[in-house]
Amino acid sequence: MTDVAIVGASGYTARELIQLLVRHPGARVRMATSRQDEAPRLDTLHPSLTGRIDLACEPFDPDRVASAASVAFLALPHGASMAATPGLRARGVRVIDLSADYRLNDPRVYADWYDHEHTDPAGLEEAVYGLPELYREAIPPAGLIANPGCYTSTAILALAPLVARDVIERSGIIIDAKSGVSGAGRSPKLTTHYPECNESLSAYGVGRHRHTPEIEQVLGDIGRSSGGGEPVEVIFTPHLVPMDRGILATIYAEPKGPASEHDLMDLYRSYYEDSPFVRVVGRLPATKDSAFSNFCDLTVRVVRGRILVIACLDNLIKGAAGVAVQNFNLMTGHPETTALL
Ligand SMILES: NC(=O)C1=CN([C@@H]2O[C@H](COP(=O)(O)OP(=O)(O)OC[C@H]3O[C@@H](n4cnc5c(N)ncnc54)[C@H](OP(=O)(O)O)[C@@H]3O)[C@@H](O)[C@H]2O)C=CC1
Ligand SMILES: CC(=O)N[C@@H](CCC(=O)OP(=O)(O)O)C(=O)O
C-alpha cells in the first residue's frame, strides 16, 4: 500500500484523481492540501466524494506531506508546482506534477512561453515526461514525473507513429483542437463564465499557445530516437467548446510518399499494440465515447493526398488525472491499468 498526498485538492484534476485513487487497491489518500483557511473537508469541496473518503484539507507543509505520504500528486497551477516540488524532493517524496512546470527541457524555452523564469532547473534535469505510451521504461524509477498537458497528449499520441516511422514531413503539421471548458480549471475566469462560453465556439491562443513547444519537443525527441534529426514544427490552434469535458483534435500532415489508409491503420495498431489506453478505431472518434475514461481514441484517413488523424480523450482523465494514476502504477509496480479500466 502506498500513502499519497493530493496538493491543490480543491481543483478539478484533484477531484478526478481522488475519485480514481479511492478505488485503487494499492493507494491510500492520507493527505490533501488547500490554501483555504477553514480546513475544508474533501466532500465539502467535491460533493461527488461524499461517502467515499473522510479527510479534511490542511495547508501545504512539505514536512507534513513527507510524514504522511511517499508520493505526492501536485494538482497546482504552473509556477506554484515548482515552488512546492524542491521541498518535497529534498524530503524524499516522489512527485507526480500535473502542471506544466517540468515538461520543457530548456528553462529558456519555459521562460519564453510561460512569461516567468523557471525557479527549479535542477528539477527540470531530474523530471521524466510522463506519457507512458512513449516513455514507459523511464517512468518506474522516476522521482519526479512531468505529467503531460491535455491537448499535448492528444496531439502527441496522434502523431507519434507517423514521426517515429518517418512517414510525414516534419514542418507544416496542422493541429486543430477543441476542448471542453473544464480544461481551463475550476477558478472562475471571464472566458469560462457561462454566458461568455455557452452557445459559442471560439479559437484562442492562436500561434502562441504554450502547448506548442511541448508538442514539438516530444515529437522531435521521438523523431531523433528513430534516426531523423530535423525538428518538428506544428501549427496548433486550440478552441473552446461549450461542453464540460473532452478534447478532439483533427490533425493534417503531408506524407513523404504515397499513403494508404489501410497501411497507416496497421502502423498505428502495431505501434500501440502494448498500450492498453490507446484505441485505434475504424469509426470517427467522438468525445462522448472516451469521456470519463483513460482512453485516447484515434483513427487515420487519407484525403486528397494528406494524412488526417482524428483523436480524442477526456482532458481530466487521460489528459490529467488518469495518466497521473497510470504513472503512479508504473512507479509503484502495479499493472498499468489498475483503477483505470
Ligand atoms: N483541467 C485540465 O483539463 C487539465 C489541467 N492540467 C493542469 O493541472 C493543474 C491543475 O489543474 P486544475 O485542477 O484544472 O486547476 P484548478 O484551477 O481547478 O485547481 C487548482 C488548485 O490549485 C490551488 N491553487 C491555485 N493557485 C495556487 C497557488 N498560487 N498556490 C498554491 N495553490 C494554488 C487551488 O486550490 P486552493 O485555492 O484550495 O488552494 C486550486 O483549486 C494545472 O497546472 C493545469 O494546468 C493539466 C491537464 C489538463
Ligand atoms: C480549455 C483550456 O483553457 N485549456 C487549457 C489547457 C489545460 C492544460 O492542459 O493545462 P496545462 O498544460 O497548462 O497544464 C489551456 O488552453 O490553457
Mass-distribution shape: globular
Identify the strand order in the major beta sheet.
8-9-7-10-13-12-11
Could you tell me the mean pLDDT?
97
Reading off the top of the CATH hierarchy, the class of the largest domain is best stated as Alpha Beta
Would you identify the regions where 5 or more consecutive residues have pLDDT less than 50? none
How much helix is in the residues? 25-40%
Return the CATH topology of the largest domain: Dihydrodipicolinate Reductase, domain 2
Descriptive notes:
- By secondary structure, this protein is of the alpha/beta class.
- It has two domains: 125 residues, NAD(P)-binding Rossmann-like Domain (Rossmann fold), CATH 3.40.50.720; 165 residues, Dihydrodipicolinate Reductase, domain 2 (2-Layer Sandwich).
- Helix content is 34%, strand content 20%.
- A seven-stranded mixed sheet has the order 8-9-7-10-13-12-11. It has a six-stranded parallel sheet with strand order 2-1-3-4-6-5, with helices on both faces.
- A hairpin with a 2-residue loop joins strand 12 and strand 13.
- Helix 1 crosses helix 13 and helix 8 packs parallel to helix 10.
- The longest helix is centred in the C-terminal third of the chain and has 16 residues.
- The radius of gyration is 19 Å and the shape is globular.
- The mean pLDDT is 97.
- It binds NADPH dihydro-nicotinamide-adenine-dinucleotide phosphate and N-acetyl-L-glutamyl 5-phosphate.
- The site of NADPH dihydro-nicotinamide-adenine-dinucleotide phosphate has 27 residues, from helix 1 and helix 13.
- It catalyses: N-acetyl-L-glutamate 5-semialdehyde + phosphate + NADP(+) = N-acetyl-L-glutamyl 5-phosphate + NADPH + H(+).
- Catalyzes the NADPH-dependent reduction of N-acetyl-5-glutamyl phosphate to yield N-acetyl-L-glutamate 5-semialdehyde.
